[in-house]
Amino acid sequence: MERSSPRSSRALLSQGRRGRALPAVRHARHRAAQRRRAPPCTVPAVAEQASPAAHVSATAPPFLLVHDAAVRFVPLKQSERLHSALRETGADVELQVYEDADHMWLGSPRAAQQALERTVDFFRHRLT
User: Rounded to whole angstroms, what are the CA distances from 47 to 14, 23, 29, 38, 39?
Assistant: First the structure.
């Protein structure tokens, strides 16, 4: 009797017996590729559903959005949009923007310290 490893079993489930992806797996891979790689303008419904701003409610927990404005990876507009969406529902939300800091506070240890202090204050205020 031939024993199969968990890895080979997973490959069989996702690829079928002949090594080809099963239709459901191909479809799931296509959807995942759309979410990760497709430009938002080509799949706006997918991009919209991927946005946290599309899933806000008044029952959301308190939010502290801390954004470094010089960041090259996540536009400030995204944090502003989430902040606005949460505020419109009546959720407890604050947006703190640090103008002179890049991703992970590179180049601005002062902003990193301020962000840490602001975060600690936020939790102290909300948890006590």
Answer: 26, 24, 16, 9, 8
